[in-house]
Amino acid sequence: MNSMYQQLMQLPLFQGVSTEKITASVEKLPFHFLKFRNGEQIFGVGDPCTHIKFIVSGQVRIDIPCANLRVSLQQTLSTPHVLAAEYLFGRETTYPFTAVANGPCGILQLRKSDYIKMVSSDKVFLFNILNYLSSGSQRNISSALAVKDGSVAERLAMLIDSLTFTGATDITLTYKQKDLCTLLGTQRTTLMATLDKLTDEDILDYGSNELHILDLYKLLDILK
């Protein structure tokens, strides 16, 4: 039981909450701890977001596809991380991406109605989820407003920034060159020249249909 409390205390939306309050929540609410094997899907694109989910052990591989273009971004999230809590509320309540176990992993989940009860029971729970949701929306706006010259490098950095979760690793963009050019609003020669320059700067490496981010911070510095 103590290890379960320690896991909960590490989760971002539980930080700052007293042990007594967490104990009371565990006793009253139906928390579910689920285990997934390597490659097993946790949820897919279009699945309804009915539970709040946390990674409590292992890693999860995220795949975010563009709806109408053959472009998708993959990234790995580790413990402790909340999965897509922003889709628990609002107009869009279905997942826009797929989550798959990257090796054995454990997921803690709580039904939406029970999570609302928990948030209503303590202001710290409420502030944590509000800060989480606010940080995400403010980050996307800051990224858009940081554009200086509208270069392809800036547009690529903004795309990666808008689709990457805080703390993500192993960030990979897979694409058909034609569709990536359409998404970034550029020609193939300009795209290749930009990718070559970013490769020379050790920011990324790339092939004919995939690029891998080597240094996310250097990429995002383009927007500063």
Taking all residues together, what is the mean pLDDT? Answer: 91
Percent strand: 25-35%
Helix proportion: 40-55%
Can you tell me the number of structural domains?
2
Reported for the largest beta sheet, the result is: 7 strands, antiparallel
Kindly provide the name of the CATH class of the largest domain. Mainly Beta
Order of helices and strands: HHEEEEEEEEHHHEHHEEH
Number of strands: 11
> Structural class of the helices, strands and pairings?
alpha+beta
Structure description:
The protein is an alpha+beta fold and 224 residues long. It folds into two domains: 2-140, Sandwich (Jelly Rolls), CATH 2.60.120; 147-221, Orthogonal Bundle (Arc Repressor Mutant, subunit A), CATH 1.10.10. The protein is 41% helix and 26% strand. It has eight helices and eleven strands. It has helices at residues 2-10, 19-28, 112-121, 123-145, 152-163, 177-184, 188-200, 216-221, and strands at residues 32-36, 41-43, 51-57, 59-65, 71-78, 81-83, 98-101, 105-111, 169-175, 204-206, 210-213. A seven-stranded antiparallel beta sheet has the order 2-7-4-5-9-11-10. Strand 10 (204-206) and strand 11 (210-213) form a beta hairpin. Helix 3 (112-121) crosses helix 4 (123-145). It starts with a helix and ends with a helix.
